[in-house]
Write a structure and sequence with these properties.
By secondary structure, the protein is of the alpha+beta class. It contains eight helices and six strands, in the order ααβαααβββαβαβα.
Length: 221
């Protein structure tokens, strides 16, 4: 049963032909998105970062709980601390924690435990998931937390690409050090570390091929 606090939907619709063209154009545009590890230190205005994050925060969430916090870091001292802690974890990953299969799968990307982009990129956005909320000292349940925060992260990546910027989804597992460095409360857990910036001059990415439509779509008609 609907409550009394509903309002008319005010979305945008398009003619059939325009809708089809917009879908095709958007796919073409998004297919150019790439993860990048070579950043310029060119600054980005705080207002830009704020609008990117608010776009992410428009994502759907279980029971509209919006179980996320976005920490935007440009302080060089904090970025340096994050890099140091991340590289310590990554060194352990690349030197015993990761399986041989995992290392083999990563080989085409040319990655290792060195993460200079964590200091070079002008901003780091650390996405935290809120396992629960605290209201007036009382725990309040959140629903579908991982799914909700994953959707918000996807919105964020799309917004970054749309702004002509580049990023990388960095997951230096385990990521508990982020909670400590940023002094986040117990109900928040690090989910993703996302550097944001412009590409470095001459930046390169691996030559990759994405799966075809036959590989990713199953129609039931």
């Amino acid at each position: 049963m609907k409550s009394n606090n509903f309002i008319p939907y005010q979305g945008i619709t398009y003619p059939v032909e325009e809708s089809a063209q917009r879908a095709k154009d958007y796919y073409t545009y998004m297919d150019r998105r790439r993860s990048l590890r070579e950043f310029s230190d060119r600054p980005i205005a705080k207002e830009v970062i704020e609008n990117l994050i608010m776009t992410a925060s428009s994502a759907p969430s279980g029971a509209h709980k919006q179980p996320w916090t976005f920490c935007a870091v440009c302080d060089p001292v904090i970025k340096s601390a994050i890099r140091k802690a991340a590289e310590e974890e990554e060194y352990t990953n690349y030197n015993g924690r990761m399986s041989e299969e995992w290392l083999k799968d990563l080989a085409p990307f040319g990655t290792d435990w060195h993460k200079p982009f964590l200091e070079i990129a002008p901003w780091l956005i650390i996405v935290f998931k809120k396992a629960y909320d605290v209201v007036d000292g009382e725990k309040k349940k959140n629903y579908y937390v991982n799914e909700s925060v994953g959707l918000a992260a996807g919105f964020l990546l799309t917004a970054i690409h749309n702004a002509g910027l580049v990023t990388l989804t960095h997951t230096p597992s385990p990521m508990n050090f982020l909670q400590k460095i940023l002094n986040r409360p117990d109900n928040e857990r690090p989910f993703l570390l996302i550097p944001v910036g412009y590409p470095a001059e001459g930046a390169e990415v691996p030559e990759l091929t994405r799966k075809s439509k036959e590989d990713v779509i199953v129609y039931y008609e």
